[in-house]
From TrEMBL, chain A:
This is Sulfate ABC transporter, periplasmic sulfate-binding protein. PANTHER family: SULFATE-BINDING PROTEIN. Residues 1-23 form the signal peptide. Its main location: periplasm. GO terms for molecular function: molecular carrier activity. Belongs to the prokaryotic sulfate-binding protein family. It comes from Accumulibacter regalis.
UniProtKB/TrEMBL annotation, chain B:
Part of the ABC transporter complex CysAWTP (TC 3.A.1.6.1) involved in sulfate/thiosulfate import. Probably responsible for the translocation of the substrate across the membrane. Part of the ABC transporter complex (TC 3.A.1.6.1) involved in sulfate/thiosulfate import. It comes from Accumulibacter regalis. It comes from the Bacteria. The keyword Zinc does not apply. It is a multi-pass membrane protein. InterPro entries: CysT_permease (IPR011865), MetI-like (IPR000515), MetI-like_sf (IPR035906), Sulph_transpt2 (IPR005667). This is Sulfate transport system permease protein CysT. The keyword Membrane applies. Keywords: Membrane, Sulfate transport, Transmembrane, Transmembrane helix, Transport. Gene3D superfamilies: MetI-like (1.10.3720.10). It is found in: Cell membrane.
Amino acid sequence: MFQVIRQLLVALAAFLFAGLALAQSVSLLNVSYDVARDFYKDYNPMFQKHWKAVAGETIELKQSHAGSSKQVRAVADGLDADVVTMNQASDVDFLAEKGLVAKDYARKFPNNASPYTSTMVFIVRKGNPKALRDWSDVVKPGIQVVLPHPKNTGNGRYTYLAAWGYALRQPGGNDRTAQDFVSRLLKNAPLFAAGGRDATTTFMQRKIGDVLISFESEAELIAREFGKGEFEVVYPSLSILTEFPVAIVDKVVDKKGTRKQAQAYLDYLWSAAGQENAAQNYLRPRDAEILRRYAAQFPAIRTFTVDEVFGGWAKASSTHFKDGGSFDQIYQQK
Amino acid sequence: MPLRSLRQKVLPGFGLSLGCALVYLSLLILLPLSGLAFKASQLSLSEFWAIASGERALASYRVTFGASLLAALINAFFGLIVAWILVRYSFPGKRLIDSLVDLPFALPTAVAGITLATLYAGNGWIGRHLEPLGVKVAFSPLGIVVALTFIGLPFVVRTLQPVIEDIEPEIEEAAASLGASRLQTFLRVLLPALLPALLTGFTLAFSRSIGEYGSVIFIAGNMPLISEITPLLIISKLEQYDVVGATALAMVMLIISFVMLLAVNALQWWAANRHQAHAASAGERR
């Protein structure tokens, strides 16, 4: 009997020791949005090599990808993310509100803590048969627009705000004309897709609609999937700059003692190698020199940020997407 | 009689198994549901009402419950036929069809939704023949019914199968030899015996449909006031980090579903009783 107990104790001790040894190898969890998968699949090995060289430490990098607001709620509920890399500031704002991320996270890194950007563009059928050049063409009667749900998806929200901002910046533009403009855009939508990829499938595969509005980076993925001959990318005269904020989750790195590594992991996004990787994934790098080198794939386009036109995501959300906001108003006028 | 049966059960372990069942159900169902109710109770009654009776919310209840009801009715009818065929006849490929029925259980609902949307879209295999007739299935409320019919089918078939197996063919033969027409045999002899199981299958399919999200959003088109289901509005609120508003809508769904399920259960109880009473009186007459 005693022998059995002793054996059990030994086994237990061995188990605990193994656990301890495991805990000693450093690992970071990066909780990210859905379509960042390709970017970090390339980026993580680059950082591992870099970190081995400068700090002599082997680091394990774990990724989690899903819809961004779902991810953020998981982090708020206790998912041990060392860093979050999102596609919309309102998601990181939510963590800041909960006290997991510094209130001034946007100033902890350069460029509003967004290592790369993108913008919303039009994807039209080959030869652009409906001659769609700008937002004003897209809202004309009889044009069919495919976009993801403007209230439920980040992609759709950016499209909504892009159209709103464009209308505001037109001569005589004000909130009333902008709302009217956006309601004409939504009236041209035969459906609201469940997400960005679903919108792409609907447009490319099911051949619904004259124009798909999506991220510039998505256009390249479409080319890989369906071939370049099937569609054309049209850059409107003005669009929205979409930012992808990153942040350290203070509460987690302080508990795990991984602040140094987390900081380095995010800093490295701004390195030449990190910026180059962004460009190769069709995300516009912040580094002017690298952007110039990839100028062929990133035509110049005039953009505005959410902060400039809407006074930040918090305000944009409450005026446009919360219950009774402008989106609801458009549907309740009818 | 009832007293004695309470005191000494032939089967042991009543207390233990009842305790286990209650703890299990409390942990699994009552606890999350009371959490939901607690969260919703952070709203005042007027706030709750404002969310629950918003224009988009009302339209979404109509779409959700209407489409679920229609889908469950379709399944009750065709599910009965499928179950009947599978039990009563033998034909080549029967095993295959029998296992096909379970597929909607196993398939991830998002896959089902995307596949159905592709099939029923204007250029899809089915949609291309329907659209010229003016029937738009994908990205319309009709698409929701199609998706819900797909996921609800196994519930009806799998509930009916064992009951049909229990009805011996001799009963039909007896009815026929006593001069009943085929329709009479079905309506007066078979249907009463099947009705309780049919209602159970219908209820399961219906309640599964009410909560369905994954397959529907890909085929619905999600237009406000037209083809938005209530679960989509709940997600919509969660996207805005409005957890309390989301639970308010969830509470409304829960209450409506509960009342409807209660009604169907009462109906089922009535049908079973009537059937038993019939059988008993028939026995006495004999």
